[in-house]
Amino acid sequence: MTDVADDAKDIESLYEFGERLNEAKDKSQNVSDYEGIIEAAKGSIKAKQLAAQLIPRFFKFFPNLSDKAVDTHLDLCEEEELGVRVQAIRGLPLFCKDTPEYVSKIVDILAQLLTAEENVERDAVHKALMSLLRQDVKASLTALFKHMGSGDEPSPDEIVREKVLSFVRDKVFPLKTELLKPQEQMERHITDLIKKSLADVTGAEFTIFMDFIKSLSIFGEKAPQERVKELTEIIEGQADLNAQFDVSDADHIHRLISCLYMAVPFFMRGASNSKFLSYLNKHILPVFDQLPEERKLDLLKNLAESSPYTMPQDSRQILPSIVQLLKKYMPRRKTGEEMNFTYVECLLYTFHHLSHKAPNATNSLCGYKIVTGQPSDRLGEDFSEYYKDFTERLSSVEELARATMKKLTQGLAEHNKAMAAAKSDEAKNNIEYLCPEALFQSIFDLVILSRIICLILLASY
């Protein structure tokens, strides 16, 4: 009974402190009342819950007690009782309502509380953070991103980092139009914060950040070239194009190819692909055979998509490597081995575009004489053997493509005929399944390949 009476007395005292502070014209004179509220935070569960409401409500009037008030409130955020913790978390944004200098500190605390396991507690943290983001988006974002690491900050707690990243991705990014105001200034600010956080991110995290940055208006379709260049430089940094290449480093290979794919849209908008192509030519293409099989085609596809936007000087540098790969994958005569048509299609597409950009480079590589009037045409030299070799390979590929198209078309027709003749589901199930979409795609790819070959052959005459 004594404990119950004491609890009731504590609650009554808290209400009295609150009433006197509410009624006081100059609340700063009621120091003892505010100290009483702080002290009551050490009492019963109900007293703690009430104190969690009153401490932030009158916080601004007692700057000399600010440290003690905040520390006491933070203790309430770590109480064993869930109700106390939730009430204390809900009160955290109130510390900043009239004292905005506390925004960074409170956001930093809330970021650490994102690890809460209880849904109601985590929801309270989310709402408190969103309240502070709406109050001061710049300070709040800066405090949040400190938990995602940068070259200027100590290594963050990994669990907190993961929770902060999830919060930013799920709660902040979708509301960028509402939160990032003034728009250009705040889009610039969050871009700079993200760039500082990219020193140690996974591929998936980098994609999340890049997708968001690309969605910002400052990097939209009408953005000036320097901003398109900035996006490309971010991707180049992630690709680690200054690193010594190790063909056994599967992570770097994956990152490099993924970044090249990500950069292609910016090449289309005028950004230079020179650094990527230089790195590929120097480090990757010479050891193409040693790359993981599952990444070879991705590399060739990305290279092909980049080729129309390559500068003449870069085209001239990389063409010899492309021709060497073509000779490897295009048989000079029919052999019993299967040919990888997709590899050849990508390489021929790349060759076609690079040759168009650097026409005087083809004579010494494959005997294609295209007169530009420059000494590099090398018209006085005889490269007829190169020409004969290359055209024979092209003709061989064209014949194989046509034969394969015929075989695929016949196979599809026979399959359709067999399916039509089958009278029961069991009979249909016994027929080997062929995917019509895949067959049509294969036939379409072969048609494209044949047309590329025709273009190259016509250019040689």
Please explain how this structure is put together:
This is Apoptosis inhibitor 5. One of its GO terms (biological process) is regulation of programmed cell death. Belongs to the API5 family. The protein has 461 residues and is mainly alpha-helical. It has a domain at 310-461. The chain has helices at 2-23, 31-40, 45-57, 66-77, 82-91, 94-97, 103-113, 119-135, 137-145, 158-172, 176-179, 183-196, 203-215, 225-239, 250-268, 274-284, 293-306, 312-329, 341-357, 363-366, 384-421, 425-429, 436-459. Helix 8 (119-135) crosses helix 9, helix 9 packs parallel to helix 12 (183-196) and helix 18 (312-329) runs antiparallel to helix 19. The longest helix is centred in the C-terminal third of the chain and has 38 residues, at 384-421. The mean pLDDT is 86.
